[in-house]
Request: fold
Amino acid sequence: MQLLKERILQEGKNLGSGILKVDGFINHQVDPELMDRCGEEFARRFRDLNPTKILTAEISGIAPALMTARHMGLPVVYARKNKPITMPDQVFLTLAPSHTKGRMVELIISPEFLGHGERVVIIDDFLASGATIAGLVRLAQAAGAQIIGIGTLIEKTFEGGRALLSTLNIPIESLVYITSMDGEEIVIDPDR
Amino acid sequence: MQLLKERILQEGKNLGSGILKVDGFINHQVDPELMDRCGEEFARRFRDLNPTKILTAEISGIAPALMTARHMGLPVVYARKNKPITMPDQVFLTLAPSHTKGRMVELIISPEFLGHGERVVIIDDFLASGATIAGLVRLAQAAGAQIIGIGTLIEKTFEGGRALLSTLNIPIESLVYITSMDGEEIVIDPDR
Reply:
């Protein structure tokens, strides 16, 4: 997606160790118009799969997932990392390693909002190692829901996430593919 | 706002101790269309103040703040509760008590995205004690930004937040006013 590519090249920063800083438009300050355009694009790519729900993980997945859900007329559920007191005692919970926190975090979904027979598209900001998304897949499977597609804003193709998730045999769509982050470079695949 | 009132009366649950459960459309599962309508309404109420930025706190403020920002053509910044590795060492940080966590949490904003001369509207899901919003106000003041308005989806009028924030002498707009949560009741002010 050209708009997102250009923004990453203009404002993204390679902080080393595979860390891409996009705090100015995705991860701390958010550009709602850009997120809306990304949501529109995800909706276009996944509409024919007839999903019933969009799933993401707090925090940075919320903006693109919300905009995707808006364009598809669907509810969005975000997995919580801390169980709020409004949630029932019995929940779906899994652990996933957090790339940016350097430790395991919990991913929690209430059975009230993800159930048997749902057709779920996962939307998140990054596809890197795929660990967070794999955690969301486990939660959905525990709930008896079917994951039918995965969409991420930015895929780092050199961190193995796509291979990890390939056994699901479902479409994995990223809007920008970063193929290398050696030195201070951010190399984006120009052809997809 | 009639649409939000009706939804709270249909699906909200009074869990006691002033805890209102709206997990089905705001706090865990989100209705993007409803949030979009709320954002449109905030935009209508605050447009004449000529804000330059929308500010909120993760996590549940993100959806209404993002939609408000979209309708105003502005960026939105969400204060983080954990400092990500992409943030500079020098940040604006304050502590605020969390109603739902029962402890103090950090609110952190990078000086990159909130600065001198900005005209800021704060949007959040709840106005209860006002502690989180007061924390955001402190951060904005530390950054040299001016808070010119506050908007929340749901105000619990019996928890003192409006009084706490009244010294700011700025418009505080809520879309629904809950005046009592005794027993299992949810009493909504019908007139505003």
